[in-house]
Design goal:
The N and C termini lie far apart (about 35 Å). The longest helix is centred in the middle third of the chain and has 8 residues. Helix content is about 30%, strand content about 20%. The chain is α+β, with helices and mostly antiparallel strands. The protein has one domain. Strand 1 and strand 2 form a beta hairpin. It is built from four helices and four strands. The protein is globular, with a radius of gyration of 13 Å. It has a four-stranded antiparallel beta sheet.
Length: about 100
């Protein structure tokens, strides 16, 4: 059995391929205005390739609301109760 994904460091160490294989949806949350949204996995793979680390994606993300380029990566477990759906934490803002 593999290591549990629980912390921000665990999330950053994953590749896009591995996150998708584990059944996660990838989301970004702006560190400035707190806007967040789940991303289209196929579009991310097409643009960056499947072996990119989520930490690198975090550095390239740009907010569509405030245009700042600093984000947190969140993973969402589909079909989980809200209380257990997000890793490493729930989004703090509104989507």
């Amino acid at each position: 059995m593999g290591k549990l994904i629980e912390t921000e460091a665990d999330v950053h160490a994953l590749t896009l391929r591995k996150a998708i294989e584990l059944g996660f949806q990838v989301a970004f949350e702006c560190c400035h205005c707190r806007k967040w949204g789940v991303q289209d996995a196929l579009a991310l793979i097409h643009k960056y390739g499947p072996e990119i680390k989520l930490e690198k994606l975090k550095n390239d993300a740009k907010c569509t609301r405030c245009r700042k380029q600093q984000a947190r990566v969140l993973l969402k477990r589909p079909y989980q109760s809200r209380r257990h759906a997000w890793i490493p934490h729930d989004p703090m803002g509104r989507g």
